[in-house]
Structures are given as structure tokens and as C-alpha cells.
Amino acid sequence: MTEPQFHPPAKRLTVADIAALAGVEAPSDARAVTGIAALDHAGPNDLAFLDNPNYADQLATTHAGICLVPLRFADKTPAGTIAIATAQPYRVFVAAVSRMYPGALKPSTIDGSDGVAQNARVHPTVRLEKGVRVEAGAVIGPHCEIGSGTQIAAGATIGPHVRIGRDCSIGAAATLTHALIGDRVIIHPGVRIGQDGFGYLMGPKKHEKVPQVGRVIVQDNVEIGANTTIDRGASRDTMIGEGTKIDNLVQIGHNCIIGRHCVIVAQTGISGSSTLEDHVVLGARVGVNNHVTIGEGAQIAAVSVVHGDVPPGARWGGTPAKPVRLWFREMKLLEQLARKGSQDKSDPGTEDS
């Protein structure tokens, strides 16, 4: 069985190219790289980087052709490797990889077809701008509008009246209804946007369903990870702000307002009518209660549960979430109490009450 090339490099980068990305003077060497690799697996044709000093021992034995390193490690690179010293090795590495593998920046097409596939179902009232790609098995409902350069992958379903901007990527088997999508939005496979929010009027004999008549509005440059769900609003629109990045398997409830440039990591659940102001970061598996506001620039540690409002710029963690310094003190105190309890029980002079 042959080994496939899922991400063939689009171009080779020279030492001068990479030095330019780092904003430093290029070494006098004409060497170029055609791939990337970790320090311990890199070969002469690869670009590698060192960002974490814990991996400094791998730098001493790397075979990488070019390596981006912090300034203090510039003289610790093996003789066969060209070192490019920069204050931000990983940031420069990402810029280089983006140039070498531009196709990896958004989901690739499934069947590789151009235009509208013969077996895609596009309603006659749909308006497609020039350069839209619709793959096999995709369904686009009546009165949709889709901007130029957008690709709709195989099996995706776009509901009636949905608007999708330009240069977007809608992943395989994704479902979009009751939604307005901005430009350059990446929606990965299996995403569900615009379905009913979970709303019921509880009663002793039965629970009455509350109509969900809002929309989902996704602004420009948002990325939404695989199998994430974003419910449409009930009494107001659910909003995802410009530049926000959402990981896989995230649940965002109805009426939520997510600000600009937020980061929401995998398996986080945000209950209905909550608000994240701009630049909020939620670690993996965070739970946010309903009607909570998390202030601008706040950060919530992974596996925390937020029950009340969080002030701007705060760093909270724990269950329930609280300022991290208080949380750490509590954990330390509990550890000390637990150790003391264990020691007391192991003392033969201690009697059970």
C-alpha cells in the first residue's frame, strides 16, 4: 500500500524567505526546505522550531535543515542546521507553514469538483455568485444566497433563506438553517447551526414547547469546529462575533452573545442567554450557566463551571469558578486537610468517635 500525500507543499521556502518572515538578516546560505517536522524527526529538507526550553536536548541532535530558535539558543544548533534566531519562533514557524501549505488553512473539498455537482440539489431560487463550488449530495433550499469563492462540501444541507458570505468553507454533512453567515467563515464537518434551542415551559402534567423564532448570526472570520452546535435564538438572535474561534464538540445555547475574537475550546457548554464579551477564553470542558456574563478579556480554566458573572480581565477556575488565586488556596488547604486526616487515621493512638 502506498503512502498518500494529504498535504503536498505548495512551495519551497529558502533561508532568505524564512528570515524575512522573522524580520532578521538572512544567513548567507541558499538552502531551502520543502517540508516541516518536529525537532526529533526532522531531516535536511525540513523546517523545525524550538519554542519550549524543555525540548532543548532535542535541538542538540536535530537533523533539520533550518530551525527557528529563541535568541539564547542560537549558538546551540548543530553544525548541519541553519539557525534563525527570533523572539517568537513558533509565530514565525506558523507563518512559514501557512505559506508552504495554504490548502491546510481550511477544510479541503471531498470530491474535488468545480462549480455545482450534477447530483447536488440546488433550488431554482438560489442565488450563487461566481466561483461557488457545490459538491455531490449537498442540498441548498429555496431563496438562499451564497457569495463568491465559497465551497459547500459533500452532503451539506443549507436551509431556506440562509445567507452565506464570500470565501467561506462549509464542511461535509454540516447543517445550516435560520442563519446569516459572514465572509471567510470556516465551518467544519458535522456542524449544526440554527436548530431549535432547548426551551420548554415546565408544567405538572406536560411541558409546553417554547417557539424559537430567532436566528444565528455569524460574523466575518469565524471558525467553528467539527460537530459543534449553535442553537438559534428564541426571543433574540444568537450571535458569534468577528474572529472568534470555536473548537470541536462545543454547545452554544439559544440567545447567547459571543463577542469578537473569543476562543472556546473543545467540549465547552454555554447555556442559553449567556454573554461572552470580546477576547474571552474558555478552556476545554468549561460549563457556563444561563444568563451569565463573562467580561471582556476574562479567562476560565479548563473543566470549570461558571455560575455567576465574571468581571473583565479576570482569571477564574474551579467548580464553582472563582478567582484562580482563591481557587489554588482552597485546593492547597483541602490537600493539607486530607493529608492530616490520613495521618490521624494511621496513628495507632487515634480512636474512632
TrEMBL record:
<dbReference type="GO" id="GO:0016020">
    <property type="term" value="C:membrane"/>
</dbReference>
<keyword id="KW-0012">Acyltransferase</keyword>
<dbReference type="Pfam" id="PF14602">
    <property type="entry name" value="Hexapep_2"/>
</dbReference>
<dbReference type="InterPro" id="IPR007691">
    <property type="entry name" value="LpxD"/>
</dbReference>
<dbReference type="InterPro" id="IPR020573">
    <property type="entry name" value="UDP_GlcNAc_AcTrfase_non-rep"/>
</dbReference>
<dbReference type="GO" id="GO:0016410">
    <property type="term" value="F:N-acyltransferase activity"/>
</dbReference>
<keyword id="KW-0677">Repeat</keyword>
<dbReference type="InterPro" id="IPR011004">
    <property type="entry name" value="Trimer_LpxA-like_sf"/>
</dbReference>
<comment type="similarity">
    <text>Belongs to the transferase hexapeptide repeat family. LpxD subfamily.</text>
</comment>
<dbReference type="GO" id="GO:0103118">
    <property type="term" value="F:UDP-3-O-[(3R)-3-hydroxyacyl]-glucosamine N-acyltransferase activity"/>
</dbReference>
<comment type="pathway">
    <text>Bacterial outer membrane biogenesis; LPS lipid A biosynthesis.</text>
</comment>
<protein>
    <recommendedName>
        <fullName>UDP-3-O-acylglucosamine N-acyltransferase</fullName>
        <ecNumber>2.3.1.191</ecNumber>
    </recommendedName>
</protein>
<feature type="domain" description="UDP-3-O-[3-hydroxymyristoyl] glucosamine N-acyltransferase non-repeat region">
    <location>
        <begin position="31"/>
        <end position="97"/>
    </location>
</feature>
<dbReference type="GO" id="GO:0009245">
    <property type="term" value="P:lipid A biosynthetic process"/>
</dbReference>
<feature type="active site" description="Proton acceptor">
    <location>
        <position position="254"/>
    </location>
</feature>
<dbReference type="Pfam" id="PF04613">
    <property type="entry name" value="LpxD"/>
</dbReference>
<dbReference type="InterPro" id="IPR001451">
    <property type="entry name" value="Hexapep"/>
</dbReference>
<dbReference type="InterPro" id="IPR018357">
    <property type="entry name" value="Hexapep_transf_CS"/>
</dbReference>
<comment type="subunit">
    <text>Homotrimer.</text>
</comment>
<comment type="function">
    <text>Catalyzes the N-acylation of UDP-3-O-acylglucosamine using 3-hydroxyacyl-ACP as the acyl donor. Is involved in the biosynthesis of lipid A, a phosphorylated glycolipid that anchors the lipopolysaccharide to the outer membrane of the cell.</text>
</comment>
<keyword id="KW-0441">Lipid A biosynthesis</keyword>
<keyword id="KW-0443">Lipid metabolism</keyword>
<dbReference type="Pfam" id="PF00132">
    <property type="entry name" value="Hexapep"/>
</dbReference>
<keyword id="KW-0444">Lipid biosynthesis</keyword>
<keyword id="KW-0808">Transferase</keyword>
